[in-house]
Amino acid sequence: MSAMRNDLLKTVDRIFDEHCPKTVRASAEAGAWPAALWAALEEVGLDRAVLPEDAGGPGLDFEDAMFALRRSAYHAAPLPLAETLVAGRLLAAAGIAVPQGALTLAPVHAHDRFDFMQSATGVLLSGRAQRVPWGHVCTHAVVAGELGGKAVLGLVATAGAARGVEKNLAGEPRTLLEFAAAPLLACAPLAHAAARLYAEGALARSVQMAGALERTLEYSLQYANERVQFGRPIAKFQAIQHMLAQLAGQVAAASAAADAAVESSVAAPDEFAVAVAKSRTGEAAGKGAEIAHQVHGAMGYTREHNLHYSTRRLWSWRDEFGNETHWQSRLGRSIAAQGADALWPMLSRL
Amino acid sequence: MHEFRFDPVPMPEAAQALRGEVRAFIAQEVAQGAFTPSRNSWSSFDADFSRKCGARGYIGMRWPKQYGGHERSALERYVVTEEMLAGGAPVGAHWIADRQSGNQILRYGSERAKRTILPKIAAGECFFSIGMSEPDSGSDLAAVRTRASKVDGGWSISGTKVWTSGAHQTHYLIALARTAPKEEDRHAGMTQFIVDLAQPGVSVRPIYNLYGGHDFNEVVFDGYFVPDDMVMGEPGMGWKLVTGELAFERSGPDRFLSTYQLLIESIRAVGTEPDARAANEIGRLVAHLATLRRMSISVAGMLERGEQPAVEAALVKDIGTAFEREIPETFRHLLATEPTLGEGTSYAELLGMTILRAPGFTIRGGTREILRGMIARGLGLR
User: Fold this and answer.
1) Which residue of A219, A251, A347, A349 is the best one to mutate when testing the B interface, meaning the one whose CB has the most B CBs within 10 A?
2) Where do the domains of chain B lie?
């Protein structure tokens, strides 16, 4: 780990240790905005971590920004940091100024589409988007679609657009937003804007799953070493050791897949690497969470233990921005279309 | 707790240039009919092909030039090995010598061993087998009973090794033998020896595998004489040496590409417009493969930096060999082909051959249970 990365780790972990205790996670699930935690992130510029310095960013490279995101997921921070980072990156790519505060993204469902319409006063947005992360909490949403047959990215105020709030399994709000000729605050062309938004989201969720899996392994090791049955810590039983070895394998694979996708997506998401990452981390999330709970026994099934803050996120994130089937099928179709002999050149390119 | 970090390793430009070179060489060999690329790459013995690899500098790549090596990086070697495997090249003859035996000799062999053996390995003219397992000593390697007693000018070995792949075709093996009686520390008192299979006192008998193939052998030593300068390291160091040798054996691309040819031929058989299920399964396997490759390259980077990534290697092998076994199991559903006994010249035979070889993938080079024990130790659980 580089010295700079190590400093970043210390800074980020200090913020989460201080401002993201269990009480904050619990109250966020009840609907309270963790204002102190968000303010602490803003203070060091982590909400703008992906922006270049001349656009108000803190001067981190993309890999560092994604590392910070991974740590936020490790700490199960109940905030739209991933969404704010992705939104900022999209706005910067489209040359639109990034507003203050937490940002969200829409549409995030493969079948939702917005209508963009040019009017005398500007571009108007209409349509519904389901399960927009923190859609009623963030004051602005970055939206993608087509205007006159060209891919565009826009920025819209969310005030008055919320039509209902659901929660994902981790208790993170997912809002139905509906716009009826809402004026965009800004709109600019961006190649494949909607697909790019979706891929950026998938990349961010992959990174978050890698972070949550890392925590899940740590909880499991700690519990197995502490829990005594039949006169010894359960970590001493070969059956448990092999389960934990398999969990470590899932965590390491998820981590490697997410890292590879981040490295190949510095300028823009690399379709192949993101598909690999979302597929692999999603699979690891399911298998990893299963092992972690089995190791924890009944204790891990309680509200009291912290494991659920990580595993409920894994069970949510693996289905957001495309589940494993979505990305695997895209990958599989693309490989088959290019022919078997194109596979190795594609793999060895990375 | 041990932190498993599979950090990124940038491929140096020299390695990428080498990739193109190796790929062109393989394509040319295939075009000239030197081999058909749908066989078991690193289990296919082809001495002619190994000599060509030697002549091109693809064996002993990391070794010093004075011993016939080419002083290239671990990543350059990685690129050559993965291109050979992906191309289905018959690299089995020199594989063990290049992957592990040569490295052991370089680190622990006498000057004479290094001078006489390494240049021949690098030239693709000298092949090795592994002399670890015995009838009563498989996963529990410390239970070896083959014994070496000190005699004038050397050692006299008696005992039996089994599962000795290729010993009927190779020139040497490195044998692990007990040189002192078992003490409280059961890892003490063992020594590795270089055994020249052409000398008297050692005999090789075939053990046919489940489909009738001849790969395994039983190797019996009856007062076999090894000169002192064919001892590896100091007598009694054997356990340390053998565990180091196993690390070379575990992390490479041969631990997840054994069934790559079946993957390729299956994708070809599925065709360019897969149905939903086939697309999903192909995508899943490729996602696993891309991830494994990344982890394996990362281990090559650790070796390059002089680290000893034994636990990371065990992890890659555990996941990688499970992946190898998933390929036939996945495509037998998708393509509804009845697997056929044969040499692998048709798709049905390739599938059949792979199903029959699959049990070996998670056993050879350390069973998955042994590997998981090592990973657990790395996690601080043992």
Assistant:
1) A347
2) 13-126, 130-236, 251-378
